Amino acid sequence: MLTDTLAVIPYAGTLPAGFFEVALPAQAPRPDEQMLTTLFAEEAERYNIIFFTDFAQVRLVGQFPKEGGEARFGFWESSPDATANAQAFAALEAEARRRGCPALTGPLDFNTFQRYRLRVGAAPSWGRFDREPTNPTYYPPLLEELGFRAHLTFESRLIRPETVPAVYTDKQPLLDALAALPFEFLPLNADTWPQHEAELFELVQAVFGANPAYRPVSEAQFRGLYNRTYAAGLCPHTSVLLRDQNSGQLAALSLCQPNYAPLGQAATQPPDFQRDYPRLTAPTLLAKTVGVHPSFRNRGLMNALGAYGMVHFREWYQQVIFCLMRTDNFSLHFTDGLPTEIAHYALYRKEL
Predict the structure, then answer these.
(1) Which of 180, 220, 255, 343 is the most exposed place for a label (fewest CB within 10 A)?
(2) Against a cut of 0.85, is the pTM above it?
(3) Which residues contact 254 (CB under 8 A, 6 or more apart)?
């Protein structure tokens, strides 16, 4: 259906031709059409999906839960054209109101395993790390002009080489206490990942299940993103699982990797630590996915994960970025009081 110059296309099992090439900024990752085809087919089971685009200036996807509740928008890419965005979002909002949705949240490509959030403000000194939200600086103002407000906020914090000695002085008690913890430390890499894959899926659901905006995904979707190929890019010296020695249950995880972005590799070439780390001239560690099972919280395990990463850090890295932490998350406290460079991000919401 066309409304003036805007196409409104309900999902009917196929992706609209050309939709994912519309208004694609230079820094946006190129879409993987096969991955998108599979993703939309799966998510269509729980969302009514509608595509909005003028095929020139703007595109976005409305996601309306079949069980009701707030709507989401995602796969948003745009030129700075405020009029084109106003038209597209007006159609999205009208559809959300028609369906009785109380609010709109985004950008969020169905779930937090996929792309979501915007980076707010100028690009930080590191440019971009793997899976970091990147967007033109005009994106947040466009949403704010349309009545959206930051709903959840996030930070990435860089600790530079000159600050590293102070970190070790500050955290030495945590390092000293590691050996006495009643947990087994299980290093993660491409060889060990398959041994824990099924348990990892369950652990991730438990650790992040209560987070705002989180929705569970199928094991197939999880393994499409987090698998042995992904594990080959992990840092084998700092990535770890914690297993409770009494119950045998996985209690926490920390997935870290070098920042491979300076290598300028094609998106179609997954990073591999053994191959790519030696090519880095000033290695930066990314502390990316870190969390503790609800049954084991308030036992100091977040600090233990940070301390574990410090054991071999100075041998392999010059600096570290603690990535994409929610601003109200306890994990932020690990770097409190230390000099950091901070990048900001937000997920936006509009009450209807």
Answers:
(1) 180
(2) yes
(3) 238, 239, 240, 287, 289, 290, 305, 308, 309
